[in-house]
Amino acid sequence: MQTVKMVITGPFSSGKTQFIRTISEIDVVSTDRRITSESERVKEETTVAMDFGRITVDEDLVLYLFGTPGQKRFDFMWEILSEGMLGFIVLIDSARPETFREARRILEIFRGYAPTPYVVAANKQDLADAWEPEDLRIALKIDPRVKVVPCVARDRESVKSVLLELLFSILEEMDAEEQT
Amino acid sequence: MALKGNLRDFNTTQLLNLINLARKTGALTIQSQGADAKVYFKEGKLVHATTSSQDGDLTRMLVQAGKLSEEQFKTIRARSGKISEKELALYLINAGLVTQSEVVQSVKDHVLNVVYRLFTWEDGVFYFEPNRLPPAGRITVPIDLENVIMEGSRRVKEWERLQEELPNLDMALKFTDRPSAKLRNVNLTVEEWRVISFINPRNTIRQIAQSNNMSEFQIRKIVYGMLQAGLVELVRPEGAEARPLVPPGRKKPIERPPAVKRSVINRLIDRIRKL
Ligand SMILES: Nc1nc2c(ncn2[C@@H]2O[C@H](COP(=O)(O)OP(=O)(O)O)[C@@H](O)[C@H]2O)c(=O)[nH]1
Ligand SMILES: [Mg+2]
Fold first, then answer.
1. How far is the CA of A38 from the centre of ligand 2 (A)?
2. Given the DSSP bridges, would you call strands A51-58 and A61-67 parallel, antiparallel or unpaired?
3. A128 reaches B (C-beta below 8 A)
4. Can you say how many angstroms the Cα of residue A44 is from the centroid of all Cα atoms in its chain?
5. Which of the residues A70, A127, B216, B262 has an alpha carbon 20 to 30 A from that of B223?
């Protein structure tokens, strides 16, 4: 059986947990809330929530979605997570410009890990204050070749379209590689 | 006179008890199954410990504790060729890279890890050299033996249980397949994340432990926790020639897994469209 993975990243509260929860077939998604009932667990300050989802294609192929943990001191795990990924998605809370700089920083870090394709998801498009995807592109100085996709992480069709855009980008990348 | 024998007859708990009660100063060497440990005491307190497999390199310890990055580790390693551990610690503290208490904690964790492991050794020759001190330049941290003995005994029991629950480290892991698996609020430690990143039917638990510099006890504990949480399942490892593991945190261009073909992407697209 082959397993492949995608990483969902973005600033705190950009909608990563929601995004994975909306599409995953298993309820393996966590929140940043802490649960203390699990007494076996190690002290809470050393733990970090994990977002983890799965889409089974068939008996031989499974796609995993990994959300990056929120707390800054766990940044080093980003690289661990990005190991071998097919591509990544940068989620942005389109209604909170104060997070754009952080989103840009995260995007740069991930680009540094791997030359894999990525898309930017302009999340929370259902909010009145949401910036337009094309305005976001300019504000965040996103490469014209990279797709900025409108997104509402609570909506399944919307999440599907973001995932599909990333997969299309991966195919395009494969085409480009074959031509060279 | 000589404090010398085999753990079969006088075990680690008894040895440490004696050293504690007699307020001994000196070095205890234990040799077991190719492994070698040296533990130093001062007036009945534990002060230092090394093993043949873990010399307790300070920078390495700080990386494992998440206090230094792999990059910093390499730079420091390259520059700090011959200087002693104490000098190195001073340098790191002065450079503002770590605090004194972080250094002390790392050394302490290391020493305790070595000593706790000795509790699981059932066989091995030991001898005590009175008044022998740790090598000059090493950082020593005095630790009361009473607590060490209590914790060590507790771990022996845990160790026995873990060994029963997870006898074979040559099995591999995969993420659970049961769609009904209800997993909520999976909070993971840094160490658990490191293990997660290597989960693949091709990697055995033992290989994962080696790549992460984890002891058998540590990896058993982590894997057991994940099994209990329903996050992973044990599987027979796939393929004899496992792909070499890449240590986490290492800077290197990450390539797309070579096995991913266009057909895989097309299958993913079809599946997601139908969701
Ligand atoms: N209106 C709206 N709210 C969203 C959307 N996506 C996420 N949220 C909310 O934004 C908050 C943060 O989302 P969360 O998934 O926890 O963000 P994370 O920190 O990136 O995991 C939550 O209250 C979500 O319900 C969206 O598309 N529209
Ligand atoms: Mg979250």
1. 20
2. antiparallel
3. no
4. 25
5. A70
Which is the CATH superfamily of the domain at A2-179? P-loop containing nucleotide triphosphate hydrolases (3.40.50.300)
Chain-centroid distance of CA A31 in Å reads: 15
Query: Nearest-CA neighbor of B196 among A42, A83, A18?
Result: A83
Would an 8 Å CB–CB cutoff place B252 in contact with chain A?
no
Q: Hey, are the CB atoms on B265 and A171 less than 8 Å from each other? A: yes
**In this complex, is the C-beta atom of A45 within 8 Å of any C-beta atom belonging to chain B?**
no
The residue whose CA has the least distance to atom 18 of ligand 1 is A13
Residue matched to tokens 């969902």: A8
Q: Report CA Rg, chain B.
A: 22
Per residue in B205-220, pLDDT tens?
Answer: 999 888 877 888 889 9
Residue nearest to atom 12 of ligand 1 (CA): A13
Q: What is the pLDDT of residue B201?
A: 82
Q: State the ligand closest to the CA atom of A154.
A: 1
Q: Which domain holds residue B199?
A: 166-235
Show residues of chain A in contact with B270, CB under 8 Å: 57
Q: Pick the closest to residue B85 from B135, B46, B44, B35 (CA basis).
A: B135
A16 lines ligand 1 (CB under 6 A): yes
Whether A83 sits inside 8 A of B188 (CB atoms) is: no
Counting ligands in written order, the one closest to the CA of A129 is 1
Same domain, B48 and B119: yes
In this structure, are strands B125-130 and B4-6 parallel, antiparallel, or unpaired? Answer: antiparallel
| Cα torsion angle, B115, B56, B97, B249, sign | negative
Residue A158 beta carbon below 6 angstroms from any ligand 1 atom: no
Candidates B45, B68, B239; CA nearest to B145 is B45
Q: Is residue B266 one of the residues assigned to a domain? A: no
Which residue in B182, B189, B265 is closest to A47 by CB distance? B189
Q: What's the CA-to-centroid distance between A15 and ligand 1, angstroms?
A: 4
The domain spans of chain A are: 2-179
pLDDT tens per residue, range B68-97: 877 777 777 777 667 788 888 888 888 888
- pLDDT tens track for B96-119: 888 999 899 989 988 998 899 899
pTM of the model: 0.59
Q: Would you give the end-to-end CA distance of chain A in angstroms?
A: 31
